[in-house]
Write a structure and sequence with these properties.
The chain is of the alpha+beta class. The chain is built from 6 helices and 6 strands. The protein has helices at about 1-10, 10-15, 20-30, 65-75, 110-125, 130-135; strands at about 40-45, 50-55, 80-85, 95-100, 155-160, 170.
């Protein structure tokens, strides 16, 4: 059956960490996704003050989309708390980002969510490079390159032991 085929395309971590209702909604959106299309849903969660962005990207735009999405979120001054990255066997991307928008002491407005969603769409579709998004949404004029804050080397730790269903990446 078609639904079983679609489910088989997704990795186990997505199926084990996503509600049945959300999987059904994602599969419906993937089914109607056209080449060159990016679908984004943003939802404010008042219980913890975060916004969740679900980003579905067609396979033809998937290359480098994580970099572009996180760049767009950072360009809009959002703090990324978690990211669940999922790519189906056919290359379709279904990602989830939980973010904090420190510009809002109260609920994040739908207008702001829509603006961030459009920035993500623009970045993924390559309409505007991420660097240009940073420049466009910069709050303060930048002068020369800033001096490094620390002389420590960057460190990335990949942990496949802490979770049976996910890889934890600590930067």
């Amino acid at each position: 059956d078609h639904i079983d085929e679609q489910l088989a395309d997704f990795p186990p971590h997505y199926l084990s960490t996503t509600t049945a209702e959300q999987i059904a909604d994602d599969l419906r959106k993937v089914h109607y996704l056209n080449p060159g299309e990016v679908r984004i849903d943003g939802q404010y969660d008042a219980s913890n003050g975060t916004v969740e962005f679900r980003v579905i990207v067609s396979a033809d735009l998937a290359a480098g989309c994580f970099h572009k999405i996180t760049g767009a979120l950072n360009a809009k001054q959002l703090e990324i708390l978690t990211a669940q990255i999922c790519t189906s066997l056919d290359g379709t991307v279904v990602d989830r980002f939980q973010v904090v928008d420190n510009d809002f002491a109260e609920a994040v407005s739908q207008e702001r969510i829509d603006t961030v969603s459009e920035a993500i769409r623009i970045a993924v579709r390559k309409d505007t490079p991420v660097k240009k998004l940073f420049q466009k949404f910069m709050r303060f004029e930048s002068g020369n390159e800033a001096e490094p804050i620390s002389n420590l080397e960057s460190r990335v730790v990949i942990d496949n032991e802490s979770s049976k269903t996910c890889t934890v990446i600590d930067v």
